[in-house]
């Protein structure tokens, strides 16, 4: 056992754990975050995706001791009691069926939009390629990402706006 420090959703946690423990288990079992889910355990399906320092990361294959920097889980993307635009778009586009993959889909989409705020359909498909949905709602997922991108673009201030000469 070793003491490690993780910063998740803005809070620093000190834990005494086996350094090889997958981050997914630490997030769910020790810290109580239920967004990331166990799917394949091999980093192939995307259900366990979290964002670490801006990068969508498969937490089931990432040792907790290897994490340096900020971890963001699904629970950490809503701000001030208001859903993140992706979460709202998921509702508006009626994306979920069984809901099992939603954590991975939303977190992968967030990392995509953080890097590319106005992706093309092709870029969305490429960015989401390895995040699986067993209900096959990929067209609704793509529509939700486009909707969120538009909402986020509309919320960004225009350069020079509000400047008095």
* Element string (H = helix, E = strand): EEHEEEHHHH
CATH architectural type of the largest domain: Roll
The CATH homologous superfamily name of the largest domain equals Beta-grasp domain
- Number of helical segments with 4 or more residues: 5
The order of strands across the largest sheet is 2-1-5-3-4
Number of domains: 2
CATH class of the largest domain: Alpha Beta
Distance between the termini: 61 Å
Low-confidence stretches: none
Q: Fraction of residues in helices?
A: 25-40%
How much strand? Answer: 15-25%
Q: Please tell me what the overall shape is.
A: globular
**What is the SS-derived class?**
alpha+beta
Largest sheet: 5 strands, mixed
Number of strands: 5
Q: What fold name stands as the CATH topology of the largest domain?
A: Ubiquitin-like (UB roll)
Structural summary, described in words:
Helices cover 34% and strands 15% of the residues. The chain has helices at residues 23-30, 85-92, 102-115, 121-128, 138-155; strands spanning 2-8, 11-17, 49-52, 55-58, 70-72. The protein is globular and about 45 Å long. The protein has two domains: 2-76, Ubiquitin-like (UB roll), CATH 3.10.20.30; 85-155, [2Fe-2S]-binding domain (DNA polymerase, domain 1), CATH 1.10.150. The chain has a five-stranded mixed beta sheet, sandwiched between helices. It has 165 residues and is of the alpha+beta class. It contains five helices and five strands; from the N terminus they run E-E-H-E-E-E-H-H-H-H. The longest helix is centred in the C-terminal third of the chain and has 18 residues, at 138-155.
């Amino acid at each position: 056992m070793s003491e490690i420090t993780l910063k998740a959703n803005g809070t620093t946690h000190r834990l005494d754990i086996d350094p090889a423990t997958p981050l997914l288990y630490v997030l769910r079992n020790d810290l109580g975050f239920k967004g990331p889910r166990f799917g394949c355990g091999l980093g192939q399906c995307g259900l366990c995706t979290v964002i670490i320092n801006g990068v969508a990361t498969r937490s089931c294959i990432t040792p907790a001791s290897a994490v340096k920097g900020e971890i963001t889980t699904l629970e950490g993307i809503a701000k001030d009691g208001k859903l993140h635009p992706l979460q709202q778009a998921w509702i508006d586009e009626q994306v979920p069926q069984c809901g099992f993959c939603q954590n991975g889909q939303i977190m992968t989409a967030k990392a995509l939009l953080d890097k590319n705020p106005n992706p093309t359909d092709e870029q969305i498909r490429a960015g989401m390629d390895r995040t699986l949905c067993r209900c096959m709602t990929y067209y609704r997922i793509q529509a939700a990402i486009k909707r969120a991108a538009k909402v986020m673009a509309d919320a960004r201030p225009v350069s020079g706006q509000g400047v008095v000469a």
